[in-house]
């Protein structure tokens, strides 16, 4: 509970109608998509940078933690207020301030939902490439703070590749402006990169200028089935080596396709070890020739069956199969934990075989899907956190998966971030000197440790 | 609460959030289906106390069913909300006006009496009640005028088919809206069914389907109505039981079975009724052969748009009304961008949360206006009252039930 005087000061900024500390609200802001829960002391809905700055000054004065939150979609506990404090919920600060197709940028407030931005941009034939699965309700502020990815980031890059500038409120309450609206901008340090992916530990993002891209003219989607998992990686490597950069290359293993079939019956063949969905986009003529080349490559690397989506419905149903994995699996048990380790593309089969062996050894049910084109592996583990014995097996398996990823020159997280879920594994990837530098940066920007405390730094 | 295990199945993935029309306006986790599930879980686990605020939070839902249709974990939000609303009602009671309203819905004679008084324009207590509950943010002047006499009372019980020999008999389950306010829908249903060569029976003893009471957590009260209707309508000698309202339809075709299972009633009889129960639009589409020669090819050409009621869309419906529009030669259908979004009415939602409801309905109206249609077709009188009630005086578009559109295009 906040002291009465602090509460009064905060209420003076946002008013009674945007300040909450009733039990119901505190419970609703005690979680995100991860398993750990912890209640904040208050939830505030800011509408402007100036308000955030004033709130931050008061928090700083009284040493109260502040956690920025958007849609609460993240899977690593990044927005769970583990040390209490104030949740700043940005969902109502959600205006698209500018869409500039001539100069190819948009300026948005942090609470804009990714899908709503896409909808507005599509009206002028543009889009914002990052497409996390949560795009229907996750916010741009959250996407930026987590440096979110998605399937089509293979071709287009991740959120961080689209940030031109931002407005950030520092722990002291000071407001800074990084970058500009220019694609080319080497004026001073590239501070945007510091805050992007900082998971709310360095500053509070209150405005973002994003680069936007014209919508492609057409799509072609191919699905290839393999008897040998290693052949899928050879296909992926060969496609990239021929100079084709598909929008997405998604892999599902046999256990996963069978789980999907058992529970959703989408008509996927059950007998193959691996399934690749490959999509290309661009000018019609170009994508046609790319699609043909991809089919040939898949065949030469051992694909037993190759099909192409003949209509937009067929394309949608293929993506539905891929996107239904999380949902289908979460039906099977109360909790669903999606890991996010990433390895170089050439190591994908080795990683998948290794992950499957780890899961089997610990008797854990999971599907494995991967953004194969960028080595981002998602074992989707289904479990019941109330079963402490099983949960400890899940934790052991996760540790082994991370270790394997690092052995294969990979890393802990491709797009979900570190948050609470992976903070203990940070030393596997980052050496002491590097972690020490991160602490120096954190101390310089947030000396009292008020911004999203208890997380990875 | 028996649904406790089901609540634990909520993996907090949040996929439901994008489907929730209330969240789109409220933008608060507290309003999301995920949020409600978590609050109810904490309540069940004993670390969140029962309170009026909690009661309000679980009521802040249109019961549109969008989240359930989308939930990867297959959670039945509606049942959990209803069980929770019942608990909250026991702890904190219900708004007195709503209490009387539900009392009336379960006591047909008194409902008739109060509607009768209101129809005569007497400044009775019942008129005030009716006005307040049904209106929310809708002006009295644009509310549908009540029938002089309830339709079921005014209409004969037996209507013979137009053809010499009837193809069979159907029972017509007359919804409350038709019975008390929209008699023209009732006449249209009878006219079309007769033209299809059917004998139509209306059962004078029928009562409200009970769904509005059930949805607010009045489980036991709803049961009286449900059992009465099941005993009246579960008949072997009829082709079908026709409904004219998406809400009644969802009750008869699936809701009754759920309630009988939950409260331990006659499940077999409910199932028998469910098989026979069919919405008028779907029935016409299914047997369009019986009707197509009667459609007047010279009928005036009209431009229409469509609103898909939640009780049809998210409860196993199939947009039969859209297929019907496609079958009518003189109808030009222009889809509205958000034709399958909730209208924001949600039973008594527009009375309980008028501000959010208004924002939702205004978006719908803007998109329907943009189609330039003359008629806004919808098979749910509840949606119809809400949509019509929020139109501007200058608006040219008019609400119409699909069956009225058919009746108008028949040769006399």
Q: β content of chain B, as a range?
A: 5-15%
Structural class of chain B: alpha/beta
**Over all CA atoms, what is the radius of gyration of chain B?**
21 Å
Number of domain modules of chain B: 4
CATH class of the largest domain in chain B: Alpha Beta
Number of DSSP helices of chain B? 23
Please report the number of helical segments of chain A: 15
- In what order do the strands lie side by side in the largest sheet of chain B? 1-3-2-4-5
Main β-sheet description of chain A: 7 strands, antiparallel
Low-confidence parts of chain A, pLDDT < 50 over ≥5 residues? none
Low-confidence stretches of chain B: 122-126
CA radius of gyration of chain A is 22 Å
Q: Which CATH class of the largest domain in chain A? A: Alpha Beta
Provide the helix percentage of chain B. 40-55%
Helix content of chain A: 25-40%
Note the quaternary state here: heterodimer
Strand content of chain A: 15-25%
Q: How many strands, what sense, and barrel or not for the largest sheet of chain B?
A: 5 strands, mixed
What is the CATH architecture descriptor of the largest domain in chain B?
Answer: 3-Layer(aba) Sandwich
Describe the structure concisely for a colleague.
Chain A is an alpha+beta fold and about 450 residues long. Chain A has 15 helices and 18 strands. Chain A folds into 4 domains: about 5-90, Uridine Diphospho-n-acetylenolpyruvylglucosamine Reductase, domain 2 (2-Layer Sandwich); about 95-215, Uridine Diphospho-n-acetylenolpyruvylglucosamine Reductase, domain 3 (2-Layer Sandwich), CATH 3.30.465.10; about 215-330, Alpha-Beta Plaits (2-Layer Sandwich), CATH 3.30.70.2190; about 335-440, Alpha-Beta Plaits.
């Amino acid at each position: 509970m906040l002291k009465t005087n602090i509460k009064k000061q905060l209420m003076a900024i946002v008013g009674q109608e945007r300040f909450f500390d009733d039990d119901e609200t505190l419970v609703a802001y005690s979680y995100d998509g991860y398993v750990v829960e912890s209640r904040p002391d208050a939830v505030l809905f800011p509408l402007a940078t100036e308000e955030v700055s004033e709130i931050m000054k008061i928090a700083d004065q009284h040493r109260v933690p502040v956690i920025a939150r958007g849609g609460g979609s993240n899977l690593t506990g990044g927005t769970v207020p583990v040390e209490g404090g104030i949740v700043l919920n940005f969902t109502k600060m959600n205006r698209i301030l500018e869409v500039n197709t001539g100069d190819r940028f948009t300026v948005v407030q942090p609470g804009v939902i990714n899908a709503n931005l896409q909808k507005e941009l599509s009206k002028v034939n543009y889009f914002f490439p990052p497409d996390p699965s949560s795009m229907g309700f996750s916010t741009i502020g959250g996407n930026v703070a987590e440096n979110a990815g998605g399937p089509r980031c293979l071709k287009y890059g991740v959120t961080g590749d689209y940030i031109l500038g931002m407005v950030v409120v520092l722990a002291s309450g000071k407001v800074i402006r990084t970058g500009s609206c220019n694609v080319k901008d080497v004026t001073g340090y590239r501070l945007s990169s510091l805050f992007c992916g900082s998971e709310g530990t360095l500053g509070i993002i209150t405005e973002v200028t994003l680069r936007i891209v014209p919508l492609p003219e057409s799509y072609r989607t191919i699905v290839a089935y393999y008897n040998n998992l290693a052949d899928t990686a050879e296909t992926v490597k060969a496609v990239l080596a021929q100079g084709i950069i598909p929008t997405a290359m998604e892999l599902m293993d046999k256990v996963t396709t069978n789980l999907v079939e058992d529970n959703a019956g989408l008509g996927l063949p059950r007998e193959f070890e691996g399934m690749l969905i490959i999509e290309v986009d661009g000018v019609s003529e170009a994508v046609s020739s790319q699609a043909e080349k991809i089919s040939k490559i898949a065949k030469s690397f051992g694909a037993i069956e190759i099909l192409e989506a003949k209509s937009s419905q067929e394309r949608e149903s293929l993506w539905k199969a891929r996107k239904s994995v999380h949902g289908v699996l979460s039906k099977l048990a109360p909790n669903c934990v999606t890991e996010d380790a990433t390895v170089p593309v050439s190591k994908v089969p080795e990683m998948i075989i290794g992950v499957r062996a780890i899961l089997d050894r610990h008797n854990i049910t999971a599907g494995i899907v991967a953004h194969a084109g960028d080595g981002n592996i998602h074992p989707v583990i289904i479990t019941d956190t109330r079963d402490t014995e099983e949960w400890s097996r899940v934790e052991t398996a996760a540790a082994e998966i991370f270790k394997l990823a690092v052995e294969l020159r990979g890393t802990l997280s491709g797009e979900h971030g570190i948050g609470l879920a992976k903070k203990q594994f940070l030393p596997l990837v980052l050496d002491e000197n590097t972690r020490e530098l991160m602490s120096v940066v954190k101390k310089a920007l947030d000396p009292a440790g008020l911004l999203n405390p208890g997380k990875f730094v | 609460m028996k649904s406790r295990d089901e609540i634990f199945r909520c993996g907090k993935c949040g996929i439901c959030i994008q489907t929730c029309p209330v969240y789109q306006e409220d933008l608060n986790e507290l309003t999301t289906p995920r949020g409600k599930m978590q609050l109810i879980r904490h309540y069940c686990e004993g670390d969140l106390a029962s309170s009026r605020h909690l009661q309000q939070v679980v009521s802040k839902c249109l019961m549109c069913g969008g989240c359930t249709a989308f939930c990867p974990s297959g959670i039945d939000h509606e049942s959990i909300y209803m069980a929770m609303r019942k608990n909250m009602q026991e702890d904190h009671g219900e708004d007195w006006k709503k209490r009387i309203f539900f009392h009336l819905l379960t006591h047909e004679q008194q409902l008739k009496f109060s509607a009768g008084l209101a129809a005569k324009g007497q400044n009775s207590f019942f008129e005030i009640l009716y006005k307040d509950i049904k209106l929310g943010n809708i002006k009295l002047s644009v509310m549908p005028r009540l029938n002089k006499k309830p339709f079921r009372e005014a209409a004969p019980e037996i209507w013979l088919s137009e053809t010499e020999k009837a193809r069979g008999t159907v029972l017509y389950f007359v919804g409350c809206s038709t019975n008390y306010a929209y008699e023209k829908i009732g006449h249209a249903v009878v006219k079309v069914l007769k033209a299809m060569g059917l004998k139509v029976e209306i059962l004078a003893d029928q009562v409200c389907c009970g769904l509005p009471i059930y949805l607010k957590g009045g489980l036991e009260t709803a049961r009286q109505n449900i059992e009465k209707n099941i005993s009246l309508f579960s008949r072997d000698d009829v082709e079908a039981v026709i409904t004219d309202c998406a809400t009644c339809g969802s009750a008869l075709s699936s809701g009754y079975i759920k309630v009988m299972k939950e409260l331990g009633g006659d499940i077999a009889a409910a199932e028998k009724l469910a098989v026979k129960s069919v919405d008028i639009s779907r029935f016409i589409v299914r047997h369009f052969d019986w009707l197509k020669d009667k459609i007047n090819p010279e009928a005036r050409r009209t431009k229409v748009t469509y609103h898909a009621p939640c009780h049809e869309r998210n409860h196993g419906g199939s947009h039969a009304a859209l297929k019907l529009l496609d079958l009518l030669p003189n109808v030009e259908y222009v889809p509205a961008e958000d034709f399958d979004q909730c209208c924001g009415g949600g039973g008594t939602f527009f009375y309980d949360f008028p501000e959010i409801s208004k924002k939702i309905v205004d978006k719908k109206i803007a998109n329907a206006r943009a189609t330039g249609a003359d008629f806004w077709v919808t098979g749910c009188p509840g949606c119809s009252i809400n949509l019509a009630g929020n139109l501007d005086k200058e608006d040219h578009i008019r609400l119409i039930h699909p069956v009225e559109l058919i009746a108008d295009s028949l040769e006399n």
